[in-house]
Amino acid sequence: MEGGAAASTPAALPYYVAFSQLLGLTLVAMTGAWLGLYRGGIAWESDLQFNAHPLCMVIGLVFLQGDALLVYRVFRNEAKRTTKVLHGLLHVFALVIALVGLVAVFDYHRKKGYADLYSLHSWCGILVFVLYFVQWLVGFSFFLFPGAPFSLRSRYRPQHIFFGATIFLLSVGTALLGLKEALLFNLGDKYSAFEPEGVLANVLGLLLACFGGAVLYILTRADWKRPSQAEEQALSMDFKTLTEGDSPGSQ
Amino acid sequence: MEGGAAASTPAALPYYVAFSQLLGLTLVAMTGAWLGLYRGGIAWESDLQFNAHPLCMVIGLVFLQGDALLVYRVFRNEAKRTTKVLHGLLHVFALVIALVGLVAVFDYHRKKGYADLYSLHSWCGILVFVLYFVQWLVGFSFFLFPGAPFSLRSRYRPQHIFFGATIFLLSVGTALLGLKEALLFNLGDKYSAFEPEGVLANVLGLLLACFGGAVLYILTRADWKRPSQAEEQALSMDFKTLTEGDSPGSQ
């Protein structure tokens, strides 16, 4: 990191990032508390295997996926490649943890003889997982290895950002649907009697939505975008002139 | 509209807008079909009063709210004030229709002796409604009447856009939660047997998510933003110089 570069971090950004992390950690802890206090905890080789599903999904497809999106805002003065590798790695961790969560629920359904993939939650969940995997593959091959020509990267980047944010929001929505499903299955009529479990899970739902909102806010604030570094800009211009010979906004 | 201004509409934009409208109308029709075919239709003075709730919410807080956000992309060559009034009016229609939907469900609960506001869907719904009303009031007083000073408007505009999009997405998420709730209440175990009603409602849920995604895409594409008109730019500059005497990016 260069000495003078740190000054370019917007004054309010660290507070917003800290707030988002507080929200994210609280919602992971609250998911654990919900499963531990009211659902009997987590174990792979028993009926508690199901409980691995919500915890893995909240950690992987909500918290880690959200943090992976923030990497370019937080590490704004590191080399672009380092940030890019971290972004890709966080998404790999998220994918692997989500895969464990997916195996947990399918395995639990198989052992219990329950039907698979009939609910809106499961349809959205499979859609999210497939889109997330495809987005990762395309992102990796365009931006890391083997890498696409500069002109193609420039055109794909806004799409990558839009679909990344959309997949993240769909993940949050799918988590809300799953939480609702679990509450209605487990509490039934007791839900309307304001049972502590129902209230705790509703608060968890609101926290999920707030975390989604906080990540989206940090991501979309125009003056918080990562500044292009001088050497990257020079390189980009060279590439641009070589490959296209036109101006950046001409598409 | 000026003769030459129409040429500034991006070539692909009308197709994306048409697609979003097709999605929006399909999801309103499908909500009607679901309620008509499987839930006995709609009537105010009977048990069917509940069914006014999902229909009003999908028309008001999803379709009309979404379309209100697109007004600045669609009417890009009209006078700014005309577009602004249309944006505000569409939101008023959406609010009034949503209020009817809200009265329907509270009235139905009261008649049946059901508890209010215990579920995650209801918590999110009330949050959406309050935020939407506050956003409308603040937007109206800043941008229409009495109107805020130019410097304040410029600072508030990005927040207005961010919170507008967020409230819209939360509306879509709340609709998904409500749909899920209705399915689990009404279908119970039959949901996992792939009953036609369950499949239709799942498709409706996916359409809701797609409509949210389509509106967000049109709204956030940088090269589709409404261009500032020449006279507005000149006026802005005058105001800016008079009130602040600094550059637009100095905040």
Automatic annotation (TrEMBL), chains A, B:
Spans traversing the lipid bilayer: 12-37, 57-75, 87-106, 126-148, 160-179, 199-219
Cofactor(s) the record lists: heme b
Listed InterPro entries: CYB561/CYBRD1-like (IPR043205), Cyt_b561/ferric_Rdtase_TM (IPR006593)
Subcellular localization: Cytoplasmic vesicle, Secretory vesicle, Chromaffin granule membrane
Main location class: membrane
Protein's job: Transmembrane reductase that uses ascorbate as an electron donor in the cytoplasm and transfers electrons across membranes to reduce monodehydro-L-ascorbate radical in the lumen of secretory vesicles. It is therefore involved the regeneration and homeostasis within secretory vesicles of ascorbate which in turn provides reducing equivalents needed to support the activity of intravesicular enzymes.
Xref: SMART domains: B561
GO CC entries: chromaffin granule membrane; lysosomal membrane
Domain of life, per lineage: Eukaryota
A molecular function GO annotation: oxidoreductase activity
Membrane topology (UniProt): Multi-pass membrane protein
Domain Cytochrome b561: 19-220
Organism from which the protein derives: Macaca mulatta (Rhesus macaque)
Catalysed transformations (reactions): monodehydro-L-ascorbate radical(out) + L-ascorbate(in) = monodehydro-L-ascorbate radical(in) + L-ascorbate(out)
Protein name: Transmembrane ascorbate-dependent reductase CYB561
Pfam families, alphabetized: Cytochrom_B561 (PF03188)
Keyword Electron transport: yes
Keyword Transferase: no
Alphabetical UniProt keywords: Cytoplasmic vesicle, Electron transport, Heme, Iron, Membrane, Metal-binding, Translocase, Transmembrane, Transmembrane helix, Transport
